[in-house]
Structures are given as structure tokens and as C-alpha cells.
Design goal:
heterodimer; A: 204 residues; mainly alpha; 10 helices; disordered N terminus; B: alpha+beta; Jelly Rolls; six-stranded antiparallel β-sheet; 26% strand; binds zinc ion
């Protein structure tokens, strides 16, 4: 059958809303089988304007909305063979395609300025798997190492750091417990952290 | 057995295309593993589609913009159905292969090497492109993550095995969201350990033990 563009256009104009899933399923299978532009124009004229209202709500912008409509309907045209009427209605299938494209667009739109690198998310603790040209293995600070460095602190500093950072006590609590001035707790903490920091740097 | 599911509003937001892409990825992976949520999503989507497409009100006649779009689309070639992209369906650690839910498979090629974090805890970073970063975490039997809390949120999906965190026990397919109200200590006693897929949006904050010492120095390691 020969179907010219002008004929299609006439048909689009005459298309009434079709709510019959069976009829739409039939069009989809014809598209899959014959690449039938006429059947597609039926699907298109029913779904595209309605998709636009979803898209407009989701994207809040006419240009993006029409992009979503176009991408969705392109998928319908190109992937009609993937539609399986036993798994759901054409409406649900097309809705799901639109939803997935919406996620894709959302992803691309997102501003990644506040991007955090994964090394930051799982701080240090990190010991790389041996890599042929990996030399830093010995220089990576591990939990075990920091434990060793901690052990090498002078006893008095260790006590204070342990109480504050490991047991989670406040400096005042530690001062009371050890019966020493708050200022002493503060200076011991500062000294201990400085020392650890230097040792970590040397280690590097 | 799966006992931790995304909550219903999140399933709805996912179905509608309204949640953050990272959340969408996690829910999609959970849905791959969970027949119950799969059914829920199918029903929610069918309802939404119905509401959107079967409205009685007729739409205004198509204008030239639509005709242009239509002819552009029908000029497109048929999709290439032959030779679909070959992708890994599993990841490997130390000779062990873990089968992944469909949603995660396409990210295997962007998964880095395994690193040993501490003791029996392993990590492999996953570059999700526009979505951000994720990690596969593997706890050997007896392995644990130092007790920590989160400034942001931590979404976790159990891909294989079981683990507990002092709050509950989690099985294969379980999905959880942790935030700064939780303080937890994940560990696994499963014979085959436990593989999870996790997305965190802020650095962890260690809350107990020697690991607390890491907090004041964290900036030194962020290089
Ligand atoms: Zn579920």
C-alpha cells in the first residue's frame, strides 16, 4: 500500500481519541512488522499531545518537554518490536519509555558542581590492590598504621586523645576525670594532633 | 528473604520519573531483585499511564510542530536489533563471581579495581557518570565497617549474602537508606560474606574506636 505524507496528514486530522488498548496494540504490531507510517501516525497523534502535558509538568519548559515527547515517540517507532501486549497495555509501555527518558534527561541536566569524589566518601582506610606500577602501597596510611602511630604518642597525650576522639568525651569531662586544668587538656590534644599530623606526613 | 523495601512514596516517585537519578538507580536495582516491588511498580505505572492517556478531553488538533516531529521520526531507521551490546552480568573478586541485578550490569565496565579498606572489608568504586559515584563493598565473613554515621545519606542494596549493622539483619535484595540519625556498624557473619552496592553523598563520619582518629585528619587524605 502506498501511503503518502499528505494522506497521513489528513488522517491525523480526523483521528479521534482512541482509548482502545487492543487497537493500539494492533498498530504497534503492524509498525513492528511493516514499518507502517500510517499506523504510527495514529499512535503518534493520540499519544504525543498527551505526553506533552506530562512532559511539561515534569520538565517545566516547553523546549525540554517537546524533546521528551520526540525522544519517547522515536523510541516507540524504533522499538515497537519490543512491545509485548501480554505484559501490559500500550499506554503503560509508552509511559514507561517516557519515564526512562525523563530520568536520562534529568541526569544530563544535573549540575555536578557539588560532585564529591569517591575517595572522599570512604576516607583513607584505602590500600590499593597491587598494581604493576603502584609504588605508593607502603605509603598509604591504613587504619593499622594510624593505630601504630597513635601508640607511639607520649602516654599523657595518648590518654587525652583516646578519651576525646575514641571515647567521644568532651575536653571538660576529660579535665575533670584526669583532674587537670582544661587548658592542659587543650594543649595536650593540640600537641598530639600536631605530632600525628607530622608523622603522617613523614609517612607519605 | 527481602524484608527492606523502598517506601511507597519513593516507589511512586520512581514510577513517575520524579526522584533523584541516584535513588532511581538504587530502586531500579532493587526492583530487579524484588518481585513484590516489581508488581507494585507495574501497577503504579499502569495507573499513572491510564490517568495520563485515557483522559476524555480531546487535545487540540496537532499543529505544524507535531507534523514536523512526526516526519522526522518516521525517517529514522529501524533500531539495530542485531548484536546487542555484550555486557558483563557479574563482577569478580578473588575468583568469586557475583551475579548482578540487570540495572547494575551496565556499570560493571566503569567499576574500578578492588581495594582492601581495612581487615576483611573490600571496596570497588563505580563511576556512574552524570549520576555520580557508587561503591561495591564486600565484607568477608567477620568483616566490618568501623562504626560511623553520615552527614548525608547512605543508600545500600544487598547484592549477595547477608550482613547486620547492630540495627537489623539484611538479606540479599534488601534496600536501606541511612542518614545522620543512624549510627551503625555493618558487619557480616555469612560464610560467603556479603556484597553490597552503596551510594553515599557525603563523607562518612566515624564514631567509635580507633577510626575516630581519622576524622580530624580527613583533609590530609583527600588528595
Ligand atoms: Zn521490594
Amino acid at each position: 500500500m502506498l501511503v503518502g505524507i499528505s494522506l497521513e496528514t489528513k488522517q491525523i486530522n480526523s483521528v479521534k481519541p482512541i482509548e482502545c488498548a487492543e487497537e493500539m496494540s494492533e498498530y504497534l504490531s503492524i509498525i513492528a512488522r511493516d514499518r507502517c507510517k500510517r499506523s504510527f501516525s495514529k499512535i503518534f497523534s493520540y499519544f504525543a499531545p498527551r505526553l506533552r502535558s506530562y512532559a511539561l509538568k515534569q520538565m517545566g519548559n516547553e523546549a525540554l518537554a517537546m524533546e521528551l515527547v520526540q525522544d519517547t515517540m522515536s523510541n516507540v517507532w524504533q522499538k515497537s518490536h519490543l512491545f509485548n501486549s501480554e505484559k501490559g497495555s500500550p499506554s503503560t509501555w509508552i509511559f514507561t519509555i517516557a519515564r526512562n527518558i525523563r530520568f536520562d534527561m534529568l541526569r544530563k541536566q544535573r549540575n555536578r558542581k557539588e560532585d564529591v569524589c569517591s575517595d572522599d566518601l570512604w576516607p583513607i582506610l584505602c590500600e590499593q590492590t597491587p598494581d604493576a606500577n603502584e609504588v605508593s602501597l607502603d605509603h598509604q596510611v591504613t587504619m593499622d598504621e594510624i593505630g601504630v602511630l597513635f601508640e607511639s604518642l607520649p602516654e599523657k597525650q595518648k590518654l587525652v586523645v583516646e578519651a576525646i576522639y575514641i571515647d567521644g568525651k568532651s575536653q571538660q569531662e576529660v579535665a575533670n576525670e584526669l583532674d587537670i586544668p582544661l587548658g592542659t587538656v587543650k594543649s595536650r590534644t593540640r600537641l598530639a594532633l600536631q605530632r600525628l599530623k607530622e608523622m603522617l606526613k613523614d609517612n607519605d | 528473604m527481602i524484608s527492606f523495601h523502598p517506601n511507597f512514596p519513593d516507589l511512586q516517585a520512581f514510577s513517575a520519573g520524579n526522584c533523584e537519578p541516584a535513588m532511581a538507580l538504587m530502586i531500579s536495582a532493587h526492583v530487579d531483585m524484588c518481585p513484590q516491588c516489581q508488581q507494585d511498580c507495574i501497577e503504579i505505572q499502569a495507573e499513572m499511564a491510564d490517568e495520563l492517556f485515557t483522559q476524555r478531553s480531546s487535545t487540540p488538533p496537532l499543529d505544524s510542530q507535531y507534523y514536523a516531529m512526526l516526519s522526522k521520526i518516521t525517517d529514522l531507521p529501524v533500531s539495530n536489533t542485531t548484536a546487542p551490546e555484550v555486557i558483563n552480568t557479574s563482577i569478580e573478586l578473588d575468583g568469586k563471581f557475583f551475579e548482578l541485578p540487570r540495572t547494575l550490569r551496565r556499570h560493571v565496565k566503569n567499576t574500578g579495581n578492588w581495594s582492601r579498606l581495612v581487615g576483611k572489608l573490600w571496596q570497588a568504586p563505580v563511576d556512574l557518570g552524570d549520576i555520580g559515584k557508587a561503591n561495591f563493598m564486600y565484607m568477608e565473613k567477620g568483616g566490618r565497617v568501623p562504626e560511623h554515621t553520615h552527614k548525608g545519606t547512605e543508600m545500600t542494596l544487598v547484592v549477595d549474602g547477608q550482613y547486620g549493622d547492630g540495627i537489623a539483619k539484611y538479606d540479599c535484595g534488601d534496600f536501606t537508606i541511612m542518614n545522620n540519625t543512624h549510627n551503625h556498624l555493618p558487619h557480616s557473619e555469612a560464610d560467603d560474606g556479603c556484597l553490597v552496592f552503596t551510594i553515599v553523598d557525603q563523607p562518612l563520619h566515624f564514631t567509635a574506636g580507633i577510626a575516630r582518629l581519622l576524622n580530624p585528619f580527613s583533609h590530609l587524605f583527600f588528595k
